[in-house]
Design brief:
Elements (H helix, E strand, L loop, with lengths): L1 H18 E3 L8 E5 L5 E4 L7 H9 L3 E11 L4 E2 L7 H4 L6 E12 L5 E4 L5 E9 L3 E8 L3 E8 L2 E10 L2 E10 L1
């Protein structure tokens, strides 16, 4: 038992030395540590023992939920699809008068991995090089040779990208992040 405890402490010290740095605002009497680009904090009280439970909680908390809505914008006069109610105010400021939800996909990604979403016309949206800090998620967004950019979103934030030609209008991508 004594040898196992020593091995665990050495392992934890190695993990902390490689992956953590001091967090700003650590309270008196505690040492707060955070993971680079992962967000959740592991707080070690002086004299407390950190076990594998703390590491597994960190690993589970590192996933990011990305929601992608593919919207077809046109001027056919049909208005805004009721399924787009949460985006109504943002869409009404654009140059089109009709917006229809073509598809919606939810992805649970673990940085730095991203994901892919199929678009009409055989195009593919690629989300990659995902990174997270305490309050933001950043990722590369690309669609073939049409769009290639890096976006930064706050928790529960949404970015809209448009300009993707479609046979029946123009595609708008609404990408939301929840973490």
């Amino acid at each position: 038992m004594k040898k196992r405890g020593r091995t665990l402490h050495i392992l934890m010290a190695a993990v902390i030395a490689l992956a953590f740095w001091p967090a700003p605002g650590a309270g008196a009497g505690e040492e707060a540590l955070r993971v680079a680009h992962a967000g959740p904090r592991l707080i070690l009280q002086p004299g407390a023992r950190a076990g594998f439970g703390a590491l597994s909680a960190w690993a589970q908390g590192s996933k990011i939920a990305l929601d992608v809505k593919v919207i077809r914008a046109s001027n056919d006069g049909t208005g805004i699809d009721p399924e787009l109610g949460d985006l109504r105010s943002r869409l009404s400021n654009l140059k089109f008068n009709s917006y229809k939800l073509v598809s919606s996909k939810s992805l649970n990604v673990e940085p730095p991995k991203g994901g892919k979403v199929s678009l009409p016309g055989g195009k593919v949206l690629q989300l990659g090089d995902v990174a997270r800090t305490d309050d933001r998620v950043q990722m590369d967004v690309s669609v073939a040779n049409i769009v290639r950019t890096r976006v930064s979103l706050a928790n529960h934030g949404t970015v809209m990208l448009g300009g993707i030609d479609d046979a029946n209008g123009e595609l708008i991508l609404a990408i939301s992040a929840n973490f």
